[in-house]
Amino acid sequence: MNANPALETETLAEHWSDRPYHRHWLLQRADDLFDFFEADIINPKGGFFELNLDGTVPGKTNPVRGIHVTCRMIHCFAIAHLLGRPGAMAIVEHGMDFLWNRHRDTEHGGYFWQVDDNGPVDASKQGYGHAFVLLAASSARAVGHPLADAMLADITDVINTRFWDEAHGAIAEEFERDWSAKDGGNYRGQNCNMHLTEALMAAFEATGDQAYLSKAERIADLLIRRKSAELNWRVPEHFDTGWTVDQAYDGDQMFRPSGSTPGHWLEWARLVLQLWTLGGKTHDWMPEAAKGLFFQAMALGWDRDNGGFVYTIGWDNIVSRPFKLWWPMAEGAGAAHFLNQHQPSDFHEDSYRRIWGTISRHFLDRKNGGWHQQLSQTMQPEAELFPTRDDIYHALQACLIPLFPADGSVLEMIRTNGDRP
């Protein structure tokens, strides 16, 4: 694998995101995603189905519903409603009812990680899941859902009183149902804090409450300005309770793999620029951080031989998991667009085109619809980590972000620039 990102490129005076054909193509891909999921995702007993790879409903009579899937569907179909997609609000309403009445723990507070028809299957309280509750509540408020204010107040209180660590400016990872320590309580992770940063910005956009934005800035300061900068813009994933990096940690391959994940470098590159714009462009370190994160992801994470971003890299910069997932591609497209808007360069534009070209050739499932969620090192479809297709969150935002100004979340940009596409 050639790690040099300085690819030969023409002089790219015009951004693809400004071209009418490309914009139409992106909107079509967003419609394809809505079409793939919309018909069969609603479980009549509550929540949403995780679909088979061909888009059909699995045969399970009592499937487990994860909170992040519930919340992401609410968020995505709130976006669809703002775009003017008929029927989208009914999906938001279905998700909000399930989130409020089935995921919420009315005895101890907070929200269950997994539930089925009979109640909690995994009653733990996960920072990752609670971040997405905040995102869902904020998105629901943007479309005027009647439960949104109550849920926003509830989840804000839970985050502030249970998860937030004021001394370090970030949240704890997880608790048991009764808020006792889970697995000793000694682990801290960047992934839940990254998604909380996104959700805090959404809550700020929905309410104007500066406290949300301040928390987002503190998380970014800890994880990016300090921790990632110390590692030459590689994002560390795993920490102890004092926020010292644990480079030897190896946990769940989906949520806590060892090493570092270039997809998260890309995600942070976009989020940092979004945070910079929402904060009035007062933090001078943020644009350079975004540029460095994206450059390193292309330099170390892009497979020059086969295409796509590898899943994980060891701290020796050697690829440790060479298969490719769809979400780093989606985050790479969004990050490249944000960088093109705020720090335009041929490298960012070429990367944007290269990423979308690879998505089009390899990740779009032209037989069944939707996107392939996992490909092998040589870009063949696999389903090791993702035997089902559970949501459209990453892919949908990638399709829509380039259609709107890079000044905030895609939902807020649609709300304030609804006629732009």
From TrEMBL:
It comes from the Bacteria. InterPro entries: 6-hairpin_glycosidase_sf, 6hp_glycosidase-like_sf, AGE/CE, AGE_dom. Pfam families: GlcNAc_2-epim (PF07221). Keywords: Isomerase. PANTHER family: N-ACYLGLUCOSAMINE-2-EPIMERASE. Belongs to the N-acylglucosamine 2-epimerase family. This is Mannose/cellobiose epimerase-like protein (N-acyl-D-glucosamine 2-epimerase family).
